[in-house]
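My current task is to audit a protein record that another person submitted. Alongside the sequence sits a line of tokens, each denoting a local backbone shape. Please read both lines and tell me whether the tokens look consistent with the sequence. Do not assume that whoever made the record got everything right. Thanks in advance; the entry in question is below.
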Amino acid sequence: MQASIIDIGGGASTLPDSLLQAGYRDITVADISEAALMRSQERLGAQSGLVNWLVADITKWSPLRTWDVWHDRAVFHFLTDAATQDSYVAALQAGTHTGSTAIISTFALDGPERCSGLPVQRYSVQSLAERIGPTFKLIDHQAESHLTPSATVQSFVYAVLKRV
């Protein structure tokens, strides 16, 4: 597959495993935790060399390239002040090009107010699209009721945005 994909906050996620199995070869996983990235690398074994691993704080990172797909399952909602949100959006803009797709998931308005002991920012699909800004157009969205390992249900919203 030809699309280039970056997984923001991918850490120990199995998304790169699935992408490799589907034939993608331009995959980057970025996370603030080197230990989480190492768990993924260990799990993937020899295939880990097919993935670009990046230890970075998204709020302090300036991408040196662009990707076709920007995926973030649960980072943006941890950014609770305007300055860090603005830094994330700046990285998103620097790391994408016209036509890129951003898939961003956050806690929904009825989601938890805290996660892993940290405060979070909750969004509707409309407020998330507005916060990301006018250089991205909302093209699809979906709600999810996520069942945690402790059997708690958490409401998420997924926004699919196209860079214009």
